[in-house]
Design goal:
One of its GO terms (molecular function) is ATP binding. InterPro entries: Ac_CoA_lig (IPR011904), ACAS_N (IPR032387), AMP-bd_C (IPR025110), AMP-bd_C_sf (IPR045851), AMP-binding_CS (IPR020845), AMP-dep_synth/lig_dom (IPR000873), ANL_N_sf (IPR042099). One of its GO terms (biological process) is carbon fixation by 3-hydroxypropionate cycle. Its EC number is 6.2.1.1. Belongs to the ATP-dependent AMP-binding enzyme family. The protein is of the alpha/beta class. Among the domains are: 175 residues, 3-Layer(aba) Sandwich (Rossmann fold), CATH 3.40.50.980; 128 residues, ANL, C-terminal domain (GMP Synthetase, Chain A, domain 3, 2-Layer Sandwich), CATH 3.30.300. Helices cover 30% and strands 21% of the residues. It is built from 20 helices and 29 strands. A 7-stranded mixed sheet has the order 5-4-17-16-18-19-20, with helices on both faces. Helix 18 links the parallel strand 28 and strand 29. Helix 4 runs antiparallel to helix 5 and helix 13 packs across helix 15. Adenosine-5'-monophosphate-propyl ester binds next to helix 11, strand 20, strand 23 and strand 24.
Length: 658
Amino acid sequence: MVDRNGWEEDASVPTGSPHSPPASFVEQANVTNEAIYEEFEERWPDCWERAADLLSWDRPYETVLEDGNAPFYEWFTGGELNASYNCLDRHLEAGRKTHAAIRWEGKRGERETYTYQDLATAVNEFAAALRELGVEEDDVVTLYLPMIPELPIAMLACARIGAPHSVVFAGLSADALATRMEAADSEYLVTCDGYYRRGDAFNQKSKVDNARITLEQDVETVVVDRLGEDLPHVLGDGEYDYDDLVERHAGETVEPVSRDAEDMLFLMYTSGTTGEPKGVVHTTGGYLAHVAWTTRSVLDVKPEDTYWCAADIGWITGHSYIVYGPLALGTTTVMYEGTPDYPDRDRLWEIVDRNAVDVFYTAPTAIRAFMKWGEEYPAQHDLSSLRLLGTVGEAISSRPWNWYREHIGGGGCPIVDTWWQTETGAITISTLPGIDEMKPGSAGPPLPGIDARVVDAEGADVDPGETGYLTIAQPWPGMARTLYDGDDQYRTEYWDQFSDPDHDRWWYFSGDAATVDEDGYITVLGRVDDVINVSGRRLSTMEIESVIADVDGVVEAAVVGRSSDIEDTEIYAYVSTEGDCEPDETVRESITESIEAAIGSIARPEVVIFTPELPKTRSGKIMRRLLEDVANDNQLGDTSALRNPEIVGEIQAEIRQE
Ligand code: PRX
């Protein structure tokens, strides 16, 4: 059977049915022995030595897990190490100086390769420069840079001298930068004059100037000259040109500072329930061990691979799986500055082809866009180098999952659907690709050593198929240790709901709703706040969305509740369709029929609004809260954080017509 996109559907494999990892993949996989699950259970927490063993320690740790002050756990206590040493020096010592560490692909087609030696030199010089500016151990350095090599260089330079970095996504506003610097009391900033956006020069420095005006503290600011003559800039007091600084320290080396395993490696701000950003604290030992371990066991990365995580370093995915994980393993990590559709929609596939990328990791929102653009773009390139594909960031329904496997993975690549969070630091739920069967749409079982459970409000395991709360009942090395300046808030946000301190029970609550099947595979449905109550039944908006997204012609959907006086909540579905699919009554009917068949008539949407795009944050998450305000005719908050704010007005106009 050929579907409407023209690709063959294997009639014997209905979408959603499991796939075994191909034998050719299993043969070469890093982790293939299924006894690993049992071993981690029996030897917990000592099993995590496997992760710590992937690192080089200046001083061996004494205790794997210190749990005397739960939920403030400590991992690998007594151990000392340096993250930059682990990502650089030890590879040089192993004779891998000329091995490519970073392959950078710029927005304007520029290409640069940093060997491990090149990267080490750049990191040492910038570390010396930071010291010259007065940066000392434990000073928080804010990095506000786009995807240019100076960003990982600055991160590793900070790590080298024991100064935690706080990366603020370059697309965030001056206000967002100021709030984060203020909260972290950060007196050092590394930024740039600007960057290119779809070919145009965009001024970043003016945002920095605006942020600095509002800050009380003095800030020493290093400015990378990214745009040259395209956007001349002047440096004021306390501002330094990156190249000039580095030149003054050419050829210098800086001894990596031995850090306690529990010392902070970085801070990462993420959105909080109260609207205030939360500064999630990650440590040097546990975090690095967990990311190195999962890069190896889940993403199956080998030192000789060319590996590409197409995320932005401004988010946790980029920290863990563009910078720290791959570099700790000594592999080649691709770093891409641009967007997937510029200059054309085959840009990513051209990069995969030219670099012979082995492992590719992206987000479902990107996969849905590729699907919408059509299979002809990947088809223009040879993608046969790919061995494994990954996804992260939100649930992926079975149609884009199958499309990804077929059109990017050539039908033969396993896919890992990895569930984790800024707070978990590294992957916590995913299949192990050399062992487990994959079930499209479900992330998989918890990783070995991770006690993830789906429970009801009292903490009892829910029955297979029932919706519950996703919790983790044992600590893990990559977990956030606290919120910067907010131990109490850390406990309230993550631990109070499911813990029972009287019985020394400490369970982490992820904030996500999920289901689990008979095989222990967890399907994450989304944030619990995304559950709506219709006639006393709790319905997951994600579940409804995933049914809609599987309707022919639909690309993605967002479902929200509208409170009505007469009855209770009404369901509003915002739907975007493929380029060649006219959103008409037939599609509308298919949507309703599919929902009735899959969930029941109770979940039938009152209103289906077609829109060319859904409003999304800059990290690609659908802004459901905003869509809920639109449905409820509420005053809309600030939409400047959106990637596509213009779409909101169009949607409002559409609703008025309904
Ligand atoms: O709701 C889950 C969703 O993304 C949230 C974490 O977002 P953030 O901290 O920005 O980190 C994103 C990258 C790790 C989770 O609470 N999420 C992440 N991965 C998945 C997912 N939802 C479903 N399936 C996933 N694989």
